[in-house]
């Protein structure tokens, strides 16, 4: 007895400490076998009715009716629990609402179980007291004891319910047996009491086994859910990954098909993010994903949307909206949130973003179409200067598909021999002789014909092909320039990617060595954008080029950022004055002043100057009044093949065309 009391005390503490989700599973077990409950209720009600009708005792008739009524209510409840609680017999909902609902469900079951057990126990006791028929005694006692024995195992998942039912159904019987005045009945009463104690012990042991199994299953389920959630979460940013995004996106679109409305997808590409990510990983990703903007993300999720990282520095936001203006407002909000700096080790990290937006059903009804169109809009946003938002328009398809087709064709163009070089002479303004030729890359595509460098060079830079193509240009330019007189140099343009490529010195040395061209006959041209990418690396690369004996030229000077510090910090031997200033010489006196200033500045620093883009005699005449070193343009000579340059140079005194 002492041991049983101790176990009951332990049960009270352990049952209160059970996790709410585990408790919900145990509550569900009460309804796990509705057939046994229905059979027990029907048989008990039937036997009670037989005993009451046979005895014709008024009290027994009343209790039989009450037993039948409670049994009917319980049968309806177990078959259709939604009629009595907010839940139905479905897999356990692990959320807060599911746990709270099952608490209501447990209270309903407990009320019915206690009522039925009490009525059945009292009915048995009254039968023993108010009747003399031994058969009726046997029916009433065996029914109550059989019900109690079944309950001890069936409801062991909620032990207090099982134990209470066991006591309520069984303990009135010994009282009735003792009151009957028969000493044999008193012996039976003692047996029943021993039976109750034994069944209580069995119930507790069964509960321990059920609890251990449920805990193990719950841990396994929780672990599986954790792995499933982890597999759908981006580990760097904590937002959804591509897999979860696709699933949720398609779900939102299906819901839109049923309910109507609009769905927007904002495709986000972070601008200039690499430098931050390299210096502050993983806080750079935190800045991008906006962990400090959790309220906005949570609000979006409540509205049925999703935030996801699709890979690299690309993110997507899907939202249910009512109008296109709402999509624009969301886009503006995203740009503002991303632009806010994030504190990191005493510094503030900040990035910008470009957004492409597509809206269902206007821009597509399936995920693939909407993703493609949002990507096209993003491409247009980045092309338009970055830091902007662009909505998809059908006209984008043609241009983007053309660009993508160019990118695909560019992949094998070098191997197919589709590139060739043209050379535009640069004339010494004092002697009228050709002093150098600028190398120009031309592409005759098998699909698109002659493609402008303005179209394919950016594609080559974005894809990284510019390194391979640029290496070929260097080798081929040196090889062809070797046939020219030793006084004529060849100029080759370098892209920013080429200049910062670690293999550039080897390519230059290899090109010079293979062609036999002297290093002082090669001039490499770079633009100001090269210097902005990485000042220190650019400076080291230019110094390395100069150490080889190869000259360097700052191209398009006067445009972009045009910092005078470039002229003192970087080792340039030549400045090229941008054609925009030359074109304005005819009608803008200020342009002449700018050109003169640049020429004088270069001369003071010991640099040569080249004016490019000369197309009219008036422009050339204006330049003659300066101390400009050399000139270049269609007025003087158009781009030509290396053999035509050689022919032009064969003249003892080659001069500029159309010299006034």
What does this structure look like?
There is one protein chain. Strand 4 (342-344) and strand 5 form a beta hairpin. Helix content is 59%, strand content 15%. With 660 residues, it is of the alpha/beta class. An eight-stranded mixed barrel has the order 8-9-11-12-13-14-15-16, surrounded by four helices. A five-stranded mixed sheet has the order 2-3-1-6-7, with helices on both faces.
Chain-wise SSE layout:
Layout: H1 2-17, H2 20-29, H3 34-55, H4 58-79, H5 96-130, H6 134-154, H7 159-170, H8 172-179, H9 183-231, H10 242-259, E1 262-271, H11 274-280, H12 283-289, H13 294-302, E2 306-311, E3 314-321, H14 324-339, E4 342-344, E5 347-349, E6 352-360, H15 367-383, E7 389-391, H16 396-410, E8 419-428, E9 434-445, E10 449-451, H17 453-463, H18 465-481, E11 489-493, H19 496-499, H20 504-515, E12 522-527, H21 528-533, H22 535-547, E13 551-557, H23 565-569, E14 574-577, H24 579-583, H25 589-604, E15 608-612, H26 617-624, E16 630-632, H27 642-650
Helix pairs in contact: 1-9, 2-5, 2-9, 3-4, 3-6, 4-5, 5-6, 5-7, 5-8, 6-7, 6-9, 7-9, 8-9, 16-17, 17-18, 18-20
How many DSSP helices?
27
Question: What coarse outline follows from CA principal-axis ratios?
Answer: rod-shaped
- Structural class by SSE content: alpha/beta
**Biggest pleated-sheet summary:** 8 strands, mixed, barrel
Mean pLDDT: 80
Query: How large is the share of residues in beta strands?
Result: 5-15%
Tell how many strands the DSSP assignment holds: 16
Proportion of helical residues: 55-70%
Tell me the radius of gyration: 44 Å
- As laid out across the biggest beta sheet, the strand order is 8-9-11-12-13-14-15-16
**pLDDT below 50 for ≥5 consecutive residues: which ranges?**
82-98, 281-297
Distance between the termini: 125 Å
């Amino acid at each position: 007895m002492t041991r049983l009391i101790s176990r009951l005390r332990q049960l009270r503490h352990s049952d209160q400490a059970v996790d709410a989700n585990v408790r919900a599973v145990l509550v569900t077990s009460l309804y796990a076998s509705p057939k046994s409950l229905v059979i027990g209720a029907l048989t008990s009600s039937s036997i009670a009715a037989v005993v009451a009708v046979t005895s014709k005792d008024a009290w027994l008739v009343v209790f039989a009716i009450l037993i039948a009524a409670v049994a009917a209510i319980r049968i309806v409840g177990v078959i259709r629990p939604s009629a009595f609680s907010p839940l139905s017999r479905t897999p356990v909902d692990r959320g807060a609402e599911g746990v709270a609902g099952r608490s209501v469900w447990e209270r309903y079951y407990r009320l019915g179980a206690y009522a039925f057990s009490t009525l059945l126990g009292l009915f048995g006791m009254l039968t023993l007291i108010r009747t003399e028929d031994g058969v009726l005694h046997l029916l009433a006692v065996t029914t109550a004891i059989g019900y109690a024995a079944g309950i001890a195992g069936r409801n062991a998942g909620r032990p207090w319910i099982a134990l209470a039912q066991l006591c309520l159904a069984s303990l009135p019987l010994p009282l009735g047996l003792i009151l009957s005045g028969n000493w044999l009945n008193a012996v039976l009463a003692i047996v029943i009491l021993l039976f109750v104690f034994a069944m209580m012990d069995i119930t507790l042991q069964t509960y321990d086994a059920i609890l251990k199994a449920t805990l193990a299953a719950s841990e396994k389920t929780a672990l599986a859910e954790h792995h499933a959630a982890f597999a759908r979460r981006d580990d760097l940013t904590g937002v959804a990954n591509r897999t979860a995004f696709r699933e949720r996106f398609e779900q939102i679109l299906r819901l839109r098909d049923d309910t109507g409305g609009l769905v927007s997808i904002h495709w986000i590409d972070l601008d200039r993010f690499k430098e931050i990510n390299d210096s502050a990983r993983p806080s750079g990703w935190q800045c991008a994903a906006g962990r400090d903007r959790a309220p906005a993300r949570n609000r979006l999720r409540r509205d049925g949307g999703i935030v996801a990282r699709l890979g690299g520095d690309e993110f997507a936001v899907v939202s249910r909206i009512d109008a296109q203006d709402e999509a624009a407002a969301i886009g503006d909000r995203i740009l503002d949130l991303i632009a806010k700096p994030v504190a990191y080790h005493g510094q503030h990290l900040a990035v910008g973003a470009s957004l492409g937006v597509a809206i269902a059903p206007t821009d597509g009804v399936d995920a693939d179409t909407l993703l493609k169109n949002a990507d096209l809009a993003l491409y247009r946003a980045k092309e338009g200067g970055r830091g902007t938002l662009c909505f998809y328009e059908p006209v984008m398809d043609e241009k983007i598909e053309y660009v993508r087709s160019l990118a695909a064709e560019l992949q094998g163009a070098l191997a197919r021999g589709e590139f060739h070089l043209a050379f535009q002479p640069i004339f010494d303004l004092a002697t009228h002789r050709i002093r150098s030729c600028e190398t120009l890359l031309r592409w005759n595509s098998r699909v698109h014909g002659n493609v402008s460098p303005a179209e394919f060079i950016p594609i080559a830079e974005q894809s990284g092909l510019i390194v391979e193509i640029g290496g070929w240009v260097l080798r081929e330019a040196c090889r062809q320039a070797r046939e020219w007189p030793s006084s004529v140099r060849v100029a080759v343009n370098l892209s920013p990617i080429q200049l910062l490529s670690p293999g550039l010195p080897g390519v230059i040395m290899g090109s010079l060595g293979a062609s036999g061209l002297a290093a002082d006959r090669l001039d490499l041209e770079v633009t100001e954008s090269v210097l902005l990418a990485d000042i220190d690396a650019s400076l080291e690369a230019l110094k390395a080029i100069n150490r080889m004996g190869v000259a360097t030229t700052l191209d398009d000077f006067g445009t972009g950022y045009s910092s005078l510090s470039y002229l003192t910090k970087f080792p340039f031997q030549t400045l090229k004055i941008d054609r925009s200033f030359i074109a304005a010489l005819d009608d803008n006196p200020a342009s002449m002043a700018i050109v003169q200033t640049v020429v004088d500045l270069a001369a003071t620093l010991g640099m040569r100057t080249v004016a490019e883009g000369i197309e009219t005699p008036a422009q050339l005449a204006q330049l003659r009044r300066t101390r400009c070193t050399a000139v270049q343009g269609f007025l003087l000579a158009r781009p030509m093949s290396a053999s035509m340059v050689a022919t032009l140079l064969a003249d003892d005194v080659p001069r500029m065309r159309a010299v006034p």
